[in-house]
Amino acid sequence: MNIGEVAERAGLPAKTIRYYEDIKLIRPARDGNGYRAFSETDLHKLTFLSRARALGFTIENCRALLALWEDQSRASSDVKRIAGEHLDEIDRKIADLQSMRDTLGELVRDCAGDGRPDCPILTGLGKPRS
Amino acid sequence: MNIGEVAERAGLPAKTIRYYEDIKLIRPARDGNGYRAFSETDLHKLTFLSRARALGFTIENCRALLALWEDQSRASSDVKRIAGEHLDEIDRKIADLQSMRDTLGELVRDCAGDGRPDCPILTGLGKPRS
DNA sequence: GGTTGACCTTCCAGTAGCTGGAAGCACCAT
DNA sequence: ATGGTGCTTCCAGCTACTGGAAGGTCAACC
């Protein structure tokens, strides 16, 4: 398989796949002409990466997960720990965004949004953090 | 005011303040010794930036907001539009994270997390995006 | 007057995870 | 032979800082 096909099937840009090879997440073989030759296993790994990245795992976590995926004698507890920590991270991010949303939502709500210069958003932003 | 004091009072690292000068968000005066000399207005701007960044506005949005803040003849509708768009952006991010959370939460829930290698998280990540 | 230590300066490099673009082969169809 | 598409490498840039080195300045203490 050439990079175009594998990109299509894994749902990743070719550029990203080359980058993943660069940072050694995958090590595809090469054809005589210098083209990358992807195996079914490579495709599977890339699909895995595509999914994991879409779920917000960092590249380094992806690397760890991929290593576990390849290790037939892994303990599922190791996987669960990484995923669980990431879940907590996501929860923290959601909470942060919620709190931003609440604060900003208030400011926007209180702003007349007309032609006059008075604006509670600007006033609110000028005050030290509460 | 030197950078240390203003950093303390605005709640920003000195490094960040130097960076903000670099990208021309602020233009503090200089003392004879080469030290930056911050005015009360500079402090106010930095407090503004600190708050706006904490609410997730991009630097470029901060620049626009700061310009409006300085423009006595602004229309509050301009401010409200920027803030409203950012609010939508935050909502989109929250929705994305929620959907990640849901998917990942299911996988984690279904994983035994013991010493055995079988792991629905790894299996789930290997499948194409649903 | 000398010395310490805190504070300030600039400049360079690195972070995460790609993405865009240039220059140049390879392959296939006409 | 020619045109178009796809592949290759390499270099630069994105966001918003952050760390660190090398060196100047200031105030205090002995």
Automatic annotation (TrEMBL), chains A, B:
GO terms for biological process: positive regulation of DNA-templated transcription. The keyword Transcription regulation applies. InterPro entries: CueR, DNA-bd_dom_put_sf, MerR-type_HTH_dom, MerR_fam, Tscrpt_reg_MerR_DNA-bd. This is Cu(I)-responsive transcriptional regulator. One of its GO terms (molecular function) is copper ion binding. The keyword Cell division does not apply. Keywords: Cytoplasm, DNA-binding, Transcription, Transcription regulation. NCBIfam families: CueR. GO terms for cellular component: cytoplasm. SMART domains: HTH_MERR. Coiled coil: none annotated.
